[in-house]
Each structure stands twice: as structure tokens, then as C-alpha cells.
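Field log, afternoon session.

UNIT: design team B
ACTIVITY: writing a sequence onto a fixed backbone
BACKBONE:
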């Protein structure tokens, strides 16, 4: 288990959890968004760095918004 803190009193900032990508206001060390469910199962070693998390989010968003499966496969290959 890792400790996450609810950084929001107003419902912001909402970011995608670094593991399950559900929206959360909980953050690990004020650096990485991580929901309570994943935090309860993750160990410190499982946490990505902030740079890794941002890179994964960027790739996931590009795949999510692309409508064509072929396009997302090509984009994925290009980015990896
Ligand atoms: Zn999660």
C-alpha cells in the first residue's frame, strides 16, 4: 500500500489514475495521480515516475481519441 492524499477540496484537480486511468483527486507525493483503490494494492516500487506517468497518459489519450483501430496501432508503434 502507498499513501495517497486527496489534494482537492473542490473536486479539482481531477487527473487519471496512473494505474487504472479512472478520474481521481488523490495524488501520490503530490506528483502522480493515483486512486485509493490502486494505492491500496500498489507498492512504492510499482509507482511510475512523474515523467513515465505523463508519457503513458499522452500515449493513452492518443489511442483513446483515435477512431480507427489501424490508426491507433500505427500511432502506438510510432510512439513506442
Ligand atoms: Zn486506480
Amino acid at each position: 500500500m502507498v499513501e495517497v492524499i486527496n489534494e482537492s477540496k473542490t473536486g479539482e484537480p481531477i487527473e487519471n489514475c496512473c494505474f487504472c486511468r479512472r478520474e481521481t483527486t488523490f495524488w501520490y507525493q503530490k506528483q502522480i495521480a493515483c486512486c485509493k483503490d490502486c494505492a491500496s494494492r500498489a507498492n512504492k516500487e510499482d509507482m511510475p515516475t512523474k515523467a513515465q506517468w505523463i508519457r503513458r497518459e499522452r500515449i493513452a489519450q492518443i489511442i483513446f481519441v483515435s477512431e480507427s483501430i489501424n490508426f491507433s496501432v500505427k500511432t502506438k508503434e510510432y510512439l513506442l
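LOG NOTE: The mean pLDDT is 83.
NEXT ACTIVITY: expression trials, pending approval
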